[in-house]
């Protein structure tokens, strides 16, 4: 097996607050291979975005990486000095944020912002960078790029701005793109276009993609593998087909049950009772145990560690020594 | 863009006519100027003659028409105390006031922006706390007190700087400048700082607040995610976004700088329009007071117009909304 583009091992992220240290990410591990799209899904506050931000080194104080390691193509990047990490950002890891309306500086032409980013990372002349910017805009599907390059962000629609943001994220041919809820702020018809664009770019350039979203539909459509996060931990990770069709973790089961189908059956959607615990009040043992229909004594005491289960990996005591059927 | 400028210009003229009415009505409500000009023993006939020669016996509307007509040509009548055309008196003193106001504004802008940026980026450093303390002093101490304290320290105690006047001036056409002589420059230092200190603290606090605000925005986070250098993020992206409100405030404050110059000019005996105005108030010299009011209003209105146009240059979003709106 070749080395994964991104390898996260036992990542821990803490936020110092007045009421003590809150652990937002607790022992998260996953890999993303070249050209692979990993979907990261979970409720708000599960730690999806913080995971993405800690990979690119943009966690704002008082947050900090408290443990574990992040490797980019073998190189450890979680402890790089700020200046070296800056060179990694934009050059080797591109990032796409949620809201395209606010991601671009309103006072600069989109072309200037692209040229600025290109010239920060690649040794190109102004003219060459501009040609490259036009090519990039064409590649992300902006019509008449040689004209639009001199437009200001406010002259673009939301979907077009997200395309510009994507062009900015890929302008130095990064090995990894982190897309943090890239379609949440867009309307549905545009969402599909942006998703297929990200997918196509990943395929064409062999870029690994970490796609953070709470939308299972987007994950099912785009990802090769999916990681289900809950309260700062990975509950289940595996190939997207397996996790969607045969979720193992009770929380993943609940999530998949909450997706409406088009089959026409009028069964009520499954609802997970309760809500995710606050970071300051994560229960002992398995953090999901108060909401879990299958919880037993061990779940309230001992934290489950990820267990391989075919191509999937699940952090649940139900799969430790007990046969899988009993969970169903 | 042209239509926008034109519309603003018409509004400006409207404001000036309103100011003209106020300036003119001062003549009618601030006592009888003839009494101020003549002695106790002047006869009624002599008083009537003076009244007639000054046009004070015409109907109000005629007097107002004449006043506006003259004002439009920068003729503001004859000073009661100096018996000289007010326009000449003002023009003679305007260079002193404008030089002082411009130096004070430049001082306020440069030091205010630098201190503001620094205290936003290094929020917890001791120097940032010093700046905050200085800004509190600048905002709360009255101008005249700062001026007097500075005179006491630098002129009386240390003897480094002159305590009054403009120093030697050089005539360039009708303009007189103190910028070309050493004594002129030395004389400018204390009045400029005194006059600009309040603006400086205002700009510093504004820049600091705006900068902190901008640093939290998504596009700054995205700029960091793009791997831009800290320098490019702070000065290319963040600072430029703070400049719109700074230009507004600095621009509008330039008007108050000229108006506030009255106090600074009095403290430093600076031979500018403000000092002339204070003397005019003491002597109920209404033509000078009215003309000064008109001049200051004209400066305010012009600055407002310029600031509006500057906005559209700094912020492209306004450019298109402005052209779409017409």
TrEMBL record, chain A:
Its main location: membrane. It is found in: Cell inner membrane. GO terms for cellular component: plasma membrane. InterPro entries: AAA+_ATPase (IPR003593), ABC_Ni/Peptide_Import (IPR050388), ABC_transporter-like_ATP-bd (IPR003439), ABC_transporter-like_CS (IPR017871), Oligopep_ABC_C (IPR013563), P-loop_NTPase (IPR027417). It comes from the Bacteria. The keyword Metal-binding does not apply. Coiled coil: none annotated. It is a peripheral membrane protein. One of its GO terms (molecular function) is ATP hydrolysis activity. Residues 8-256 form the ABC transporter domain. PROSITE patterns: ABC_TRANSPORTER_1 (PS00211), ABC_TRANSPORTER_2 (PS50893). Keywords: ATP-binding, Cell membrane, Membrane, Nucleotide-binding, Transport. One of its GO terms (biological process) is transmembrane transport. Involved in beta-(1-->2)glucan export. Transmembrane domains (TMD) form a pore in the inner membrane and the ATP-binding domain (NBD) is responsible for energy generation. NCBIfam families: oligo_HPY. Belongs to the ABC transporter superfamily. This is ABC transporter ATP-binding protein. It comes from Bradyrhizobium vignae. The gene is dppD.
TrEMBL record, chain B:
PROSITE patterns: ABC_TM1. Belongs to the binding-protein-dependent transport system permease family. The keyword Iron does not apply. Keywords: Cell membrane, Membrane, Transmembrane, Transmembrane helix, Transport. Residues 94-311 form the ABC transmembrane type-1 domain. Signal peptide: none annotated. GO terms for cellular component: plasma membrane. This is ABC transporter permease. It is found in: Cell membrane. It is a multi-pass membrane protein. GO terms for biological process: transmembrane transport. Pfam families: BPD_transp_1 (PF00528), BPD_transp_1_N (PF19300).
